[in-house]
Amino acid sequence: MPLRSGTGADPAARLLLVDRDPTTGRVMADALRACVLGPVTVAATRSGREAAELLRAGPHDIVLIDLSSIDDLAPQTEEAVARLVKLADGALTIALSEGASVTARRCCRHACRRP
């Protein structure tokens, strides 16, 4: 079941998972598959630069980002998140942090242009 309308005949939701730990990534992907009705295709990457390349290559419906995995994309976490949100172009983008960074959370709201 696609999450975006008008994306063609592909019925699968497209999930981009950004996590440098492949085991954690698989666990999160499996949990999300259980939450989405219909098939889900998962593209997994371990870095911010790889995630940016995949987002430029094609649309995704959900982008799940581990904040500690995107430090190669920009000097500041906030800037890296903002870049990925912009490239995600309307996809549901979720950024996770074990350290629960308030600064990055504020940036996500700003990058999404929501109050």
**What structural category do the secondary elements indicate?**
alpha/beta
The name CATH uses for the topology is: Rossmann fold
The average pLDDT score comes to 80
Helix content, binned percent: 40-55%
> How many strand elements?
4
- What is the global morphology? globular
Reading side by side through the largest sheet, how are the strands ordered? 2-1-3-4
Along the chain, the helix and strand elements come as: EHEHEHEH
Based on the coordinates given, report the CATH architecture. Answer: 3-Layer(aba) Sandwich
How far apart the termini lie comes to 29 Å
Instruction: Describe the largest sheet.
Output: 4 strands, parallel
Uncertain spans? 1-7, 109-115
Number of domains: 1
Global Rg: 14 Å
Query: How much of the residues is beta strand, in percent?
Result: 15-25%
Description:
The chain has 115 residues and is α/β, with parallel strands linked by helices. It has one domain (13-111): Rossmann fold, CATH 3.40.50.2300. It is built from four helices and four strands. It has helices at residues 22-35, 48-57, 77-88, 102-111, and strands at residues 13-18, 40-45, 62-66, 92-96. Strands 2-1-3-4 form a four-stranded parallel β-sheet, with helices on both faces. It is globular. Mean pLDDT is 80; it is low at 1-7 and 109-115.
